[in-house]
Amino acid sequence: MSFLIFRFLSPAARQLERTVLLTGFAPFGGEAVNPSWEAVRALDGKRIEGHRVVAVELPTEFGASLPALRTALRRTNPRVAIAVGLAGGRDGISLERVAINVIDARIPDNAGAQPIDEAVVRAGPAAYFATLPIKAALAALQRQGIPAHVSQTAGTYVCNQVFYALMHAARRRRGLRAGFVHVPYLPEQAARHAAPGMPLDAMTAALETLVRVALTSKRDARTTAGAVA
Ligand code: PCA
Fold first, then answer.
1. Does the pTM exceed 0.70?
2. How far is the CA of 42 from the centre of ligand 1 (A)?
3. What is the CATH number of domain 3-216?
């Protein structure tokens, strides 16, 4: 469908266009920027494997992030949905494997809320696995020379909450592949924190690769990316 025709379609007809939803987060914890949103925003409107990328910024708030996520899912009805957040201090791209049904906030969110040991979904299962082909994505990123690893925890803050809620919603959406990616600090943030960093264009390239792999690989690769401890 050409872009021109697309512009004149009703919202319902637009949903027929195949889309990929990417979300990033607003800055939090005293940082001026959140690289997750900067990287996702750079891909907004891009076509990848015949799908249009829609980028949405989520508030870094326990309360407001979930309605924003649900609205974005309803509006875009995506084939692939990847939520992205900042994990300052980590080295490289973290392909998250598992979302857990717990919130334990180390710092208050942007609205001042600091829930401790609460469920994301009351009576929900303890955890969900990402349905993205994370091993195939890892191999593709390694071929591209972008540092990446499979992570066994997305933490217990707003990112894990959104990841869990995304997977909870995905179980009722057939054909949707979903998951979560943490990105490290940008170089200027990394310098301030004496921590690892990554240039924005490498993050954006990594996300584009992940979307491409998610849209094209039927099954995940069978290679180990496990951890002993
Ligand atoms: N990182 C935080 C929340 C928002 C973000 O970008 C997290 O890892 O929970």
1. yes
2. 19
3. 3.40.630.20
